[in-house]
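Lecture notes, continued. The same structure-token format from the folding unit now serves as the input rather than the output. Read the line below as a description of shape only.
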């Protein structure tokens, strides 16, 4: 059962839910640890996981203001 039905969620929806449930605390933890890391090597190691796991950056047109949140 890949698709959701009125009485039950499908496998795709459940998979996305649990993937998000695991990634959100992992990204939060790695970001906080990287921000508080004392040496550059530890910070770089944590950011090697943290940065690629984020949502893709949206492209903007030249001259268009960018969002303050990155």
């Amino acid at each position: 059962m890949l698709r959701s039905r009125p009485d039950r969620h499908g496998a795709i929806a459940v998979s996305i839910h649990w993937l998000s449930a695991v990634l959100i605390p992992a990204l939060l933890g790695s970001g906080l640890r990287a921000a508080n890391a004392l040496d550059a090597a530890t910070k770089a190691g944590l950011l090697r996981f943290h940065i690629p796991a984020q949502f893709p950056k949206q492209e903007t047109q030249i001259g268009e203001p960018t969002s303050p949140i990155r």
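Point for the exam: Residues 11-35 form the longest helix (25 residues).
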